[in-house]
Amino acid sequence: MSKSTRDAEGRAILEARGITKVFGSGDIEIKVLKGVNMQLRAGELTLLMGPSGSGKTTLLSILGCILSPTDGELVINGSSTRGLNAEGLADLRRKQVGFVFQSYNLFPTLTAVENVLLALDVRGSGAENAHAQAEDALKSVGLAHRIHAYPKKLSGGEKQRVAIARALAGSPSVILADEPTAALDSENGAAVMALLSEVGKDPNRAVLAVTHDHRTLSYADRIIVIEDGRIVDSRRNDGAANEGSKSHAVN
Ligand SMILES: Nc1ncnc2c1ncn2[C@@H]1O[C@H](COP(=O)(O)OP(=O)(O)O)[C@@H](O)[C@H]1O
Ligand SMILES: [Mg+2]
To answer: For 67-89, how does the pLDDT look when each residue is reduced to its tens digit (9 = 90+)?
Structure first.
């Protein structure tokens, strides 16, 4: 699973600058993010790791324009969030961001292809070739044979692949996944990480996955560690899955 480190670093597709987030007010004010600066680069799968409660989901929600930061700015593919109202933020999200959740979040009454079509509709993609786009997205995650299956007929791994197809439909530049392997056994978890790594190789896309699972480390191009609302480490992963190894592969 080792990845080439010789490639030039991709451009920043998403940049977070001085992001803070405070929940509540007065005596019950909690500062969850304390000035986060980070970049997601084109052609990379970045893993965001950190203890429970460190702010991972809050940060992911802000990076995905679901939640507004208290302070700070995002630049996604050249568009800044500064000064955007809720509608502007939602528009940026629809155009630029695809989400994958731990619990898949598929509509049980819709087939795989209908779940993907719904996402395309929400993005405002033209209906003309929407069906072909949805089928292509499912084919790209290896589910050509399950296009018309309902979620209850799919395994956990297959459901997560539908969710990834749904996130990919409409070709957003950023894919954000919150603990995408947490509900999967190790075999399906590995397949989902391999798929996210593949998806992240697109030179026009960046992928970020929150994970607790150290078995996912070997898939990462970059690892960012958050603790208590602050980024405490951010480094390129040179493909060494063995813990503690600081050696940098040259070839
Ligand atoms: N909507 C909210 N209102 C108040 N506190 C929140 C809210 N969302 C998250 N928090 C708090 O922010 C902290 C970080 O939560 P979260 O981002 O979910 O962390 P993680 O995903 O790393 O476990 C936790 O202490 C959590 O209780
Ligand atoms: Mg979380």
So the answer is: 999 999 999 999 999 989 999 99
pTM for the model: 0.89
- The answer to whether residue 3 sits within a structural domain is no
Which domain, by its residues, includes 162? 17-236
The protein residue whose alpha carbon is closest to atom 18 in ligand 1 is: 57
Does 11 map to a domain? no
Q: Give the CATH number for residue 148.
A: 3.40.50.300
The best mutation among 23, 27, 29, 54 to test binding of ligand 1, ranked by most ligand atoms within 8 Å of the C-beta, falls on: 23
Q: Considering every ligand atom shown, identify the ligand nearest to the alpha carbon of residue 63 and give its number.
A: 1
18-36 confidence digits (pLDDT tens): 999 999 988 899 999 999 9
Residues, CB within 5 angstroms of ligand 2 (ion) = 56-57
Q: Is there an atom of ligand 1 within 6 Å of 55 CB?
A: yes
| DSSP-derived secondary structure for the chain | ----S-SPPPPEEEEEEEEEEEES-GGG-EEEEEEEEEEEETTEEEEEE--TTSSHHHHHHHHTTSS--SEEEEEETTEE-TT--HHHHHHHHHHHEEEEETT----TTS-HHHHHHHHHHHHT--STTHHHHHHHHHHHTT-GGGTT--GGGS-HHHHHHHHHHHHHTT--SEEEEESTTTTS-HHHHHHHHHHHHHHTTSTT-EEEEE---GGGGGG-SEEEEEETTEEEEEEE--S--STT-------
Domains contained in the chain, number: 1
Strand partners, 15: 39, 75
